[in-house]
Design goal:
60% of the residues lie in helices and 5% in strands. It is mainly α. The chain folds into two domains: 256 residues, no CATH class; 112 residues, no CATH class. Strand 3 and strand 4 form a beta hairpin. The chain is globular.
Length: 470
């Protein structure tokens, strides 16, 4: 195994575990427990291809269990894992080296697509409005943890412009060898800063991004890192040993063993937290512990990137066009279609919007470039007002006085099972449906099996503004 492969596996396992720390309800699902066990196993031996495939398989299974209501990066991480599984399967006829290179190219394109959609979705009127902009929302959250951040209208304007500049610029500069180092530094610094936001899961998302960004590191990075550290007399002996170990892969295994020991030792606590403390303040303890692990981890990676870049060399990391040689490119197609989903009239959740303020529901769009006429599907078109419901989320929309696409009412009310009730206003008329009564399916048809797992929608403010939601 190459050093780059082992490093990626180590970072991917760490990202998976940080995600499970942030969202502890995995303990209630066999797929979630399987993902935890597989991630710990990979952390113990990051050179194992079989363990990486086990992590990816359990990640995809757990994504299916949790769908459709998951964070953006859960879906993206699942698609990356699906790409790895497909690329691994292609080794049977393409050969290991060729299939691995082509599969890595697919993952690079998927990361570029994530940045593109995160930027593109933000080209809307509400993101550029300071009173509701997600950029200001993120800035206010960061100010809670980092009180030195200044306040004022000019800071809000800089936050909005800076988010567009960074998320739009990083994928462009990653494409070119001469600007790649600075793009990686900007990306890792940007995600490290965002990881301090108190919203659950953001530092786990940053960990995922750190892992994927290593795919753009040049050849010889780890050997150069070891060489650079060995020339620094003030660096501690264990640090020099670690850097040399990165070149050989030995130290990654030792670090993984230590990290795996801590993970196993904390498993009981995580389990207890997920089973007993969800919704309470005590459920923040595992997340705080994860943050304590994340910060020195991320600082170390930033430092390694700075000192480990091969001096005088900008060698190619692997041709991006090799992606077309891998069947995993089909998964890249899914990433692109999913990113376009809100403009085509499909779902509005998990579309790689990343706190973008995008709104496309109800026959109107706030995007500056794509009109509502692009919508070929009608799932978002008809909005209804919920009066009351036994389904908790629909009841929330009733109390918040938000509108919701009728398609989401059809999904949620039938997911709750027999006896679920909902009263809603549609085109000025009030309807009441109870799923156990005759004719309920005709009055409010359930979504298809695939639709229930794929389609999810946000609530919509009556005044037309788009709130800052993930």
């Amino acid at each position: 195994m190459t050093q780059a492969y082992v490093a990626f596996c180590f970072l991917w396992a760490a990202a998976e575990l940080l995600d499970l720390i942030c969202f502890p309800d995995w303990v209630t699902h066999p797929a979630g427990v399987g993902l935890f066990v597989a991630a710990v196993a990979l952390l113990l031996k990051p050179s194992s291809g079989g363990r990486l495939l086990a992590v990816c398989a359990m990640d995809v299974a757990y994504l299916w269990v949790k769908s459709p209501w998951t964070p953006n990066h859960f879906l993206f991480k699942g698609l990356v894992c699906l790409s790895i599984l497909v690329a691994a399967g292609s080794q049977l006829w393409q050969g290991r080296e060729r299939a691995s290179a082509a599969g890595a190219a697919v993952l690079r394109w998927e990361l570029l697509a994530l940045y593109f959609f995160s930027f593109f979705h933000k080209l809307n009127a509400d993101f550029l409005k300071p009173s509701v902009s997600c950029a200001v929302f993120m800035l206010e959250g960061l100010r809670e943890r980092l009180p030195g951040i200044p306040a004022g209208e000019w800071v809000n304007e800089m936050a909005m412009g800076g988010a567009l500049l960074i998320e739009g610029g990083i994928p462009v500069f990653l494409l070119f060898q001469r600007t790649r180092r600075w793009a990686l530094l900007a990306a890792w610094g940007f995600h490290f800063l965002l990881s301090f936001h108190p919203r659950a899961g953001i530092y786990a998302f940053s960990a995922m991004m750190f892992a994927l960004l290593t795919l753009f590191l040049p050849e010889g990075f780890y050997a150069e890192l070891a060489a650079q550290v060995s020339r620094r007399p003030r660096v501690a002996a264990w640090g020099r040993g670690l850097a040399r170990g990165l070149a050989s892969g030995r130290w990654l295994g030792r670090l993984a063993a230590a990290g795996g020991g801590w993970a196993l030792g904390g498993a009981a606590g995580l389990w207890w937290s997920g089973m007993q403390l969800r919704g309470s303040n005590l459920s923040e303890w595992p997340r705080m512990a994860g943050m304590a692990l994340w910060v020195p981890f991320a600082v170390g990676l930033l430092w390694a990137l700075w000192v480990g870049w091969p001096a005088g060399s900008e060698r190619e990391v692997g041709r991006l066009r090799m992606a077309w040689r891998s069947p995993a490119v089909a998964v890249l197609g899914l990433v692109l279609v999913n990113g376009m989903a809100p403009y085509l009239g499909w779902q509005t959740v998990r579309v790689l919007s990343m706190f973008s303020n995008l709104r496309t529901e109800g026959g109107r769009s706030n995007h500056l470039l794509i009109p509502v006429s692009w919508q070929v599907a009608g799932y978002q078109r008809e909005l209804v007002e919920i009066v009351s419901s036994t389904e908790p989320v629909l009841d929330f929309y009733a109390r918040a006085r938000q509108l919701i696409p009728l398609a989401d009412v059809r999904r949620r009310i039938w997911e709750q099972g027999p006896g679920a009730e909902v009263t809603y206003v549609r085109e000025g008329r009030t309807y009441s449906v109870k799923t156990s009564e005759p004719g309920a399916r005709e009055a409010l048809p359930p979504l298809s099996g695939w639709g229930r797992k794929i389609l999810a929608f946000r609530g919509v403010n009556r005044d037309g503004t788009a709130e800052c939601l993930w």
